Amino acid sequence: MTALQDIFARPIAHRGYHDAGAGVIENTPKAVSAAMARGFGIEVDIQETADGQALVFHDYTLDRLVEGTGKVIAHSAQALRDMNMKTGGDRLWLLQDLFDLLAGKVAVVIEIKSLMRPGAQADFVRHVADLTAAYSGPAAIKTFDPDMLAVARARNPAVLRGIVASAARKGGEFGRLSNVHRFALRHMLHFPRTRPDFISYCINDLPSPAPGLLRRAFNKPVMTWTVRTAEERARAARYADQMVFEGFDPDHE
User: Is the pTM of the predicted complex or chain greater than 0.85?
Assistant: First the structure.
């Protein structure tokens, strides 16, 4: 089995197998351990710290989940590792801590969160690519930011990489982008430059021409996110090769 096949072999738990009501918070060691215990792959998010390290955390600010305030990028890695989650008993942790816990037991997909800055946080991306390349287990990186993916490709093309995409509708996080920019993201016109190994496309936007074409013509497997309902699971089975799921156990539903 190839490394890419490993990534697509088992359903992927979104931010780990988390359940806030039970004190298992997203992107924490408890959530990752719960997914590992069930044999699921894991998707986590990482943010850049003030000193260029990779924090396993989704939000750009700490306030929602952590006994801390402000932007992640404003704090050093050590300061962040000293912070507790508001519930569940876990502390914040780094990407290398995650790799140490996983120890190759299950596949992991690492979403690099982008600040959409000029230069694509290139040093940070290279750091993540280096850590991932040194890890011996099945691992891949992915990001919404094509410029980040291009940096990762240039650093180490052997590190599996995926592009995260959606219909990029006007408004929300895409509100400040031009129609042309959103069109390019939706249809992944960066493909010749980024050469992703797989596509990670929003379940709400499938079927869609671009992932369908890349899947058929270039044999690029499609991962879809975030599957939460039976209807979404059926759509994922029809239009994708892998799902990132949340809120249920795919082995028992």
Answer: yes
